[in-house]
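Appendix B, example 12.
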Amino acid sequence: MNGGQRIEAKDLRCKDRQPLQEIIPLPTPFVVYIDPTNKCNFRCEFCPTADKDLLRKVGRPAATMSMDLFRKAVDDLKAFPQKLKLASIYKDGEPLMNKHFPDMIRYLKDADVAERIWTKTNGSALCPELNQRLIDSGLDLICISVEAVSASGYLRVAKARIDYDKFRENIADLYQRRGNCQIYIKIADSGFSKVEIDKFYADFQPMSTQIAVEKLMGWSYSDIKDFTLGTKPDTYDGLPLIAKKVCAYPFYVLAINADGSVSLCGNDWAHGTVVGNITEQSLHEIWHGAALYEFRKTMLEGRRKEIPVCADCYYLQIVPDNIDPHSAAILKQLKEVRG
């Protein structure tokens, strides 16, 4: 079949990784998430954003990032000595619900602060006009999350009514316009039959550059809800489950939430790892600040359980980097750098 290469998600995120224990502390984060909005028009049961009761329980407010706040975030990135390896312009919600999204990508691209710019979307807003704006903006990769392979399937899985044929037509249009932008299409297997999986490949492989069937992913705060819906997959992206004491993300990742708060993980949907806010500080100040240092110190001292959102994090098991054997040496290095 012509079209996209069948991959696992790990193939996109596990190339050319550097041993963190040899380079911590980093002068510049490797990865920064910026969330255009934490709202979504779908209600997928396996996604935290769909559970309004859960969001109220943890106190996460609904927010959409303004263009001015996005510019502040990007301008702050210019203070770092190196480019980001990756800017991921999505996090908790559906990014295309922000009307400024193409302009945001263009502003980020023109700032030249990231080697790659990625986004992830459910694709429901795609249309020829928006497709061209997205390609012209300078995106390097668009991940489209397909939720089902029929209109009735979308109603069941995403609680959303879509014209499935039009949906496919709009993705095909994006593919035709793609230029140098990669089109990664994936589906989270929430219990599909072999017939449905075969249909997914038949429907979308010809209009992708990469394509994958992912398993359901457990998130942070895994003790308050099982986001794998009882399936307990080995891993969503093909990496093995490995128990760890220390999460490596706070050592190379920042996440700017839609309200300007800054957390330390793209999977921290509850905003439980907040260490600052770009309305009050610069990203450079936050990255090198006391709050982030204390968070890292808590992790390295084996006290992760003191951080509620991280205590029983399912996702920690599939973080690609394992710095547990080096925690004492890294902590010593961090203390020496801070004086």
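The beta strands are 5-6, 31-34, 86-88, 117-121, 141-146, 182-189, 210-215, 253-256, 261-263, 276-277. DSSP finds twelve helices and ten strands in the chain.
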